[in-house]
Specification:
The protein is an alpha+beta fold. The protein has a single domain, classed as Hotdog Thioesterase (Thiol Ester Dehydrase, Chain A, Roll), CATH 3.10.129.10. It contains 3 helices and 6 strands, in the order H-H-E-E-H-E-E-E-E. The radius of gyration is 15 Å and the shape is globular.
Length: about 150
């Protein structure tokens, strides 16, 4: 499967992204950028984004980066673990940009690191590292959504 085929399918099945207000672009294998503009539904205090929103965005950033690569190997991935360091608060109105890169690709595990920044002033909001399990694409029938 190509990243472009995945993109078409993923946009149909990923309701989490829509619920949170996440948007992404995928330009190739392991080339994903997520964006989120912090609004009132994301707040945990009058001006500050809830950490769970940042963690959810980070899981999406890391996961789709790995997935866009793994499908080129006819594999899917699932999150084994990830750790997020919250560096600075995300504030209402901030446009957040999330990117990731692959650090290690093995036969069954991939390690990826990511970063979320505030576009307006380049504040680093969070950094993370995740481990993902690879498994055969044949275990899921993704084509039923295409």
């Amino acid at each position: 499967m190509t990243p472009q085929e995945l993109d078409t399918i993923f946009r149909k099945i990923s309701t989490f992204d829509k619920t949170l207000g996440l948007e992404y672009t995928m330009t190739g294998p392991a080339e994903v950028t997520y964006t989120l503009t912090v609004d009132e539904r994301h707040l945990s205090s009058p001006q500050t984004c809830h950490g769970a929103v940042i963690a959810g965005m980070m899981d999406s950033v890391l996961g789709l980066t790995v997935l866009s690569y793994s499908v080129t190997l006819d594999k899917l991935c699932s999150t084994v673990e990830f750790k997020t360091n919250f560096i600075a608060p995300a504030l209402i109105g901030d446009k957040l940009i999330g990117t990731a890169k692959l650090d290690y690709v093995g036969n069954s595990l991939v390690v990826c690191n990511g970063e979320i920044i505030a576009e307006n002033d380049k504040r680093v909001i969070a950094k993370a590292m995740g481990t993902f399990n690879l498994y055969p694409l044949s275990k899921k029938d993704l084509h039923k959504w295409s």
